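Reviewer 2 asked us to include a model.

Predict the structure of this chain.
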Amino acid sequence: MLIRSWDRGDEAEWRAWTADRDFGLLAANGPAGAGPVLTPTHFLLDADAGEILLHLAAPNPLIAALRADPQATLAVTDDHAFAPGYWRGEPGTPTSYYASVHFSCTARIVEDAAGKAEIVTRQLGRFQPEAAYPVVPGEAPHGPLLSGITGLRLTVHEVRAKFKYDDKKSVDAQAGIADRLAARGTGSDAGAREQLLRRNARRAAACPAEGG
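Predicted model (C-alpha cells):
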C-alpha cells in the first residue's frame, strides 16, 4: 500500500479507527508458486498485546497457506468514496477516498480444543456479549463444534495506516469537498466525510494560517 506523507495515519488514529471495526481481509502467501490466499473474516484485535485472534473453518485454504508460510497481512478498509475530478479543482483528477490499516503478522495455528475454546470465548465477548459464557470443550452449545474450526493467533509486527482524504489540498478546499460528500450522501459518503472532517480539523488546529 502506497502511503504519502500527507495521508499517513499515526498510532492514535488507527487505534481509534479500528476500535469499532472488526472485519477485514486476511492474506497469506501459501506454497511457492501457488499465489496468495485471501479470506474475509471477523477478528478480535488486542492492540495493547499486539495480537489478533480469530478462527476459521478447518478446511479453509488459508490454514494450509499459513502452514507453508506463517507470515500474513490483515487489511481493514472502510469509509471509502469516489471523488469526481471537478470536485478537486485543477487539474481535476478524480480519486478515491478511503481509510485502510494493514497489520503485518506472524500466525500461530491453534488446533487444541482448549486453545480454540479460549479464542471463541473472547470473540463471543466482543460479538455476542449477551451470551458470552465460557466455551468448554465437549460441552454444549459450542464445545462440540470446536472440531470444525481452527484458531489463529496473529502476532503483530508492523501496522501501516493510510487515511486518504485530500490532505494535500488546502484546508478550505478539503472542507469544500466535505460539503459535496454531504450533498451527495450515497454509499459510504457519510463515513468518508467524517474522516475527511476529522483530518481537516486537525490540520486547521495545527496550521491556523491555512484556513480562510
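The mean pLDDT is 94. The two ends are 33 Å apart (CA to CA). We have added this to the supplementary material.
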